[in-house]
């Protein structure tokens, strides 16, 4: 894969990536492609689709996340990390952020651990556990929770709430069904902070990033 191919889409995001960033992102995709042939980490194959739908889709969220995460070293949980999306690209570009990748399927956590070592990503932790178990062992420990194609929005919020600090944020990467999924969320419990369209360069596909925060309930 050439850096020109990656830059073709990334330049349109205005993230000012360094040559080292580009090389690490390329290496991540190469390792995903290599492991995917044996372990079926993702259903999307082919270089162009991998660049656009995996890597670029994952990092389009960064400008919005930077806007809302004012902390210098926020702690972020990625639920159902799978092949490391969006957490690995985010970790590459935000080395000061601390990301916990939660994935219950061991062949996928083996890949995540491999990539962590291959890229020297000291800012990530990989947990081979169910989300519910992590919520019990680390309740209220995260400034933010993110997910890409993990589950429907209402279930994602239910799983995320025990992990969040009181002022924590949810970042839900969604596509066309976002409006339908929002209808199933009890907005007495959640506040929609932002609903941002995400543009993937050179690809006509609808993507949105929903930012939500839990409504604080006053004691009776």
UniProtKB/TrEMBL annotation:
It is found in: Cytoplasm. It is an enzyme of class 2 (transferase). InterPro entries: rRNA_ssu_MeTfrase_G, SAM-dependent_MTases_sf. Its EC number is 2.1.1.170. The keyword Transmembrane does not apply. Its main location: cytoplasm. It catalyses: guanosine(527) in 16S rRNA + S-adenosyl-L-methionine = N(7)-methylguanosine(527) in 16S rRNA + S-adenosyl-L-homocysteine. Keywords: Cytoplasm, Methyltransferase, rRNA processing, S-adenosyl-L-methionine, Transferase. CDD domains: AdoMet_MTases (cd02440). S-adenosyl-L-methionine binds at residues 80, 85, 131-132, 148. The keyword Transferase applies. It comes from the Bacteria. One of its GO terms (molecular function) is rRNA (guanine-N7-)-methyltransferase activity. GO terms for cellular component: cytosol. Belongs to the methyltransferase superfamily. RNA methyltransferase RsmG family. NCBIfam families: rsmG_gidB. Specifically methylates the N7 position of guanine in position 527 of 16S rRNA. This is Ribosomal RNA small subunit methyltransferase G. It comes from Polynucleobacter arcticus.
């Amino acid at each position: 894969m050439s850096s020109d191919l990656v830059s073709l889409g990334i330049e349109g995001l205005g993230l000012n990536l360094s040559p080292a960033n580009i090389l690490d992102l390329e290496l991540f995709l190469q390792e995903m492609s290599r492991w995917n042939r044996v372990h079926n980490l993702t259903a999307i194959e082919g270089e162009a689709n991998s660049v656009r739908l995996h890597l670029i889709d994952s990092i389009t969220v960064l400008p919005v996340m930077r806007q809302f995460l004012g902390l210098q070293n926020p702690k972020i949980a990625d639920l159902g990390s799978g092949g490391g999306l969006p957490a690995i690209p985010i970790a590459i570009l935000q080395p000061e952020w601390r990301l916990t990748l939660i994935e219950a399927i061991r062949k996928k956590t083996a890949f995540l651990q491999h990539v962590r070592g291959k890229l020297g990503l000291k800012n990530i932790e990989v947990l081979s556990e169910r989300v519910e178990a992590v919520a019990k062992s680390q309740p209220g420990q995260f400034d933010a929770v993110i997910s890409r194609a993990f589950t429907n929005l209402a279930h994602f919020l239910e799983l995320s709430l025990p992990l969040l600090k009181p002022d924590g944020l949810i970042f839900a990467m969604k596509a066309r069904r976002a409006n339908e999924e929002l209808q199933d969320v009890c907005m007495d419990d959640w506040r929609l902070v932002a609903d941002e369209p995400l543009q993937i360069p050179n690809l006509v596909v609808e993507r949105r990033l929903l930012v939500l925060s839990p409504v604080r309930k006053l004691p009776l």
